[in-house]
Write a structure and sequence with these properties.
Radius of gyration: 26 Å
Shape: elongated
Number of strands: 12
Order of helices and strands: HHHHEEEEEEEEEEHHHEEHH
Distance between the termini: 35 Å
CATH architecture of the largest domain: Sandwich
Number of domains: 2
Largest sheet: 5 strands, mixed
């Protein structure tokens, strides 16, 4: 279910006011694709067929509303100038004229025409986006919204990751669209990557769908656009559009199990002995925790906590020690490990690439 771009205008304002300030700042930024995962995005620089369709509709709506604004504002200026108080005004009330068939017809018919035109154009764009057949080379991705992170699954490849989505770049000659199946594990969320497609909600006990097809490689940023709790503003999205060969290499790398490493042996034992294994999964060492992100390839990701901070050794250590320092309201508890145990766990996690 992809919502009308016109309705999105109002929902975006409410969502951004509650937490998506990162995207609001993007309006003044350039439209180039950036590799920096922390750079803002730009809703006026579409890079996928659904986003192009929505942007074209938005420009059409802006053109019509600008014409209405110019007409009304021009009439106001005209009336103020023509009927302003004159120096020789005697203060008497001017003759009153009641009713004008021409004016009343105009302000009834013109708004009806505008509404009908906008409704028809919007319906055409919605149909254009939603009624798209899935080609043989399409990629299927399941996205599950959690408080406050994204679970990413590639069912055809047996890959599970978190927060950072890798998709192939498509072209007219070789289309490689990615079809997203959106679910929620708890409350209502909303998946919104402005440069790739419109906003689509994730509703508990319901499956919604959408599709994207980035036109060029790069990093495309998004945001949960539905207030979902304390950390709604730090439930960020990163879509990495890879060249087809690079995407295939990424899939092969993600399919590998975590390899035992003597450097992290002590930390691995602590990871398995403590509550970490109850919430997280690391393929190759047992356990099937589903409350937190899959950590099998943790160090292949640019950020921690769905964009809360950069994924570095120092930040990883601080995150385990006190997650709510970076993300107040996060559901992950502080592990209260000793300094030596904390160092060993971090040393082990650094091997998960």
């Amino acid at each position: 279910m992809i919502e009308s771009p016109i309705i999105l205008t109002f929902q975006r304002r409410a969502s951004l006011a509650t937490g998506g300030i990162v995207l609001l700042c993007s309006q003044v930024c350039c439209g180039a694709v950036r590799s920096d995962p922390f750079s803002p995005t730009n809703i006026f620089s579409p890079a996928s067929p659904p986003a192009h369709a929505i942007a074209n509709l938005a420009y059409f709506v802006l053109l019509i509303t600008a014409a209405i604004f110019a007409t009304v504002f021009g009439l106001i200026i005209y009336v103020v100038a023509k009927y302003r108080r004159r120096p020789n005004d005697d203060g008497k009330e001017p003759p009153q004229v009641y009713g004008s068939n021409a004016v009343e017809t105009a302000w009834t018919v013109v708004p009806i025409i505008v509404v009908v035109v906008l409704s028809l154009v919007t319906a055409r764009v919605i149909h254009q986006i939603q009624e798209v057949p899935k080609p043989p080379g399409a990629v299927d991705v399941q996205i599950i919204g959690h408080q406050f992170w994204w679970e990413i699954r590639y069912p055809k490849y047996g890959v599970v990751t978190a927060n950072e989505i890798h998709v192939p770049v498509g072209s007219a000659a070789e289309p490689r669209p990615t079809f997203l199946e959106l679910r929620s594990a708890d409350v209502a969320h909303s998946f919104w990557v402005p440069r790739l497609a419109g906003k689509t909600n994730l509703i508990p006990n319901r499956v919604n769908t959408m599709w994207i097809e980035p036109e060029r490689a790069g990093v495309y940023l998004g945001q949960c656009a539905e207030y979902c709790g304390t950390q709604h503003a730090l439930m960020l999205i990163r879509v990495y559009a890879d060249d087809p060969d690079a995407f295939d290499r990424w899939i092969k790398g993600q399919q590998q199990y975590a390899e035992p490493n003597a450097i992290g042996a002590a930390g691995r034992e602590l990871f398995q002995a403590n509550a970490c294994i109850n919430c997280h999964t690391v393929n190759g060492i047992g356990g099937a925790g589903r409350f937190g992100p899959d950590l099998t390839h943790l160090m292949s990701r640019a950020t921690l906590g769905s964009g809360a901070t950069e994924n570095t050794q120092e930040n990883l250590r601080a995150w385990i020690m006190q997650p709510d320092h970076f993300k107040p309201g996060v559901l992950m508890p502080a592990m209260n490990l000793s300094d030596s145990d904390l160092d060993n766990v971090v040393r082990y996690l650094l091997t998960l690439k």
